[in-house]
Design goal:
The chain is an alpha/beta fold. It contains eleven helices and eleven strands.
Length: 392
């Protein structure tokens, strides 16, 4: 398991785009953070369940999906459009005005299905490169693929910032599980929700962007602080259907990020549970084998996928953004796992306060060092896009 982060990471901007209609429709808008948070908080869904299960090409048909999304047939423009929408949500209509000025590199967590030799891989990288460069991002890298790619991206950001190689780093999680290549792989592997398996994953899609820096590294109020990150590996095989996974890898990650007897409590837990069996087994075993059982929040975790569908590589940055606004002023733990056995967890503290007046600023340097939970912060409903750095 990797060590806890040696230095906390402050979050200075976030942007989300998910559950969008076809981008080719004029004026189409993605669902942003506020809309996604409302769905997750109320238990409503962005997708619909259908009684008409009609399979194609010999594969079972999906039992639920986001309306109109499955109509798209090209993943490259879809992913680029989602990334652009998330960047606009974070930095306003001209992201380059801010990102170009601070010269922040980007680390992008990309879809796991790209590892299976998608014919669109080159087109996806080309479209994403053009989108990021248009947003003022001159340098970008991608982290390992899939759900835990977001955790790896946060670790990489911490390393860059810890070395002083950049003043800030942009982490982006990006996936469309409704892309044809992803959908066909899931259905062929028996990992899609069908009439025969109504509890499996519903395909979703999202892009989520987080601007990170060391505390005080950006001249703006911090929205939250990532206090600890850990990675691990589950030794049990995912395809061992008789016994399943035991959660020991995730348990080690939880022990790596949980507060160490300092009296801190965890207010919320967000998991990437999608309905797939191994994720539920992993979570239950991890809570049993770790110190998580000392925190009541682990008894009732929040599963964004129940409302938004499986967002894959975007799930960790998306959960971070959701935790900022759904658990203001509290600590949250976010857990993640891949079918390949990689596991990850992080501890996050939101500096947003729901009752503050709009625009109330946080002293992020004091807040990061102070372990009390009575910090002042930005109104959770007023976490607006970053302004041009030249703007007062």
């Amino acid at each position: 398991m990797s060590a806890r982060t040696a230095q906390p990471l402050a979050i200075y901007a976030q942007g989300v785009a998910t559950a969008a209609p076809e981008p080719y429709e004029e004026g189409a808008q993605a669902l942003g953070l506020a809309g996604a948070a409302e769905l997750v908080a109320t238990g409503a869904t962005a997708f619909e369940r259908h009684a008409d299960f009609v399979g194609q090409d010999g594969l079972p048909a999906l039992g639920a999906w986001v309306p109109e999304v499955l109509a798209h047939r090209a993943a490259a423009p879809r992913l680029a459009w989602l990334a652009e929408a998330a960047l606009r949500a974070a930095f306003g209509p001209d992201p380059a005005a801010y990102l170009g000025a601070i010269a922040a590199p980007a680390i992008v967590a990309l879809p796991g299905w790209l590892a299976h030799g998608s014919a669109e891989k080159d087109a996806i990288f080309e479209a994403l490169d053009a989108t990021l460069r248009a947003a003022g991002i001159g340098e970008w890298h991608h982290s390992p693929l899939g759900h835990t790619g977001g955790i790896r991206a946060l670790e990489a950001a911490q390393a860059i910032l810890g070395k002083g190689d950049a003043p800030a780093v942009l982490v982006i999680g990006l996936d469309s599980r409704t892309a044809p290549a992803s959908r066909d792989l899931a259905m062929a592997a028996g990992r899609g929700q069908t009439q025969e398996d109504p509890y499996a994953a519903v395909p979703g899609e999202a892009a989520a962007a987080l601007l990170l820096a060391l505390p005080g590294g950006v001249d703006a109020p911090a929205l939250g602080v990532i206090e600890a990150v850990a990675m691990g590996t589950e030794p049990e095989r995912l395809d061992d259907t008789d016994r399943g996974t035991l959660g020991r890898g995730l348990a080690a990650c939880l022990d790596g990020v949980l507060p160490r007897d300092d009296g801190s409590t965890i207010g919320h837990v967000f998991t990437d549970g999608t309905g797939e069996r191994f994720r539920g087994e992993d979570y239950g075993g991890a809570v049993m084998y770790s110190g998580a059982s000392r925190h009541d929040a682990f008894e009732d975790p929040t599963l964004p996928a129940q409302s938004l569908g499986d967002t894959g590589a975007a799930s960790v940055p998306l959960s971070v953004a959701l935790a900022l606004v759904l658990a203001p002023g509290q600590r949250s733990v976010i857990v993640s796992g891949n079918a390949d056995g990689s596991r990850g967890a992080l501890r996050l503290r939101s500096l947003l306060q729901p009752k503050d007046p709009p625009g109330a600023a946080a002293d992020e340097e004091d807040d990061v060092d102070d372990e009390d939970d009575d910090e002042e912060g930005i109104d959770a409903a007023d976490a607006a896009p970053m302004a041009d750095p030249a703007t007062p």
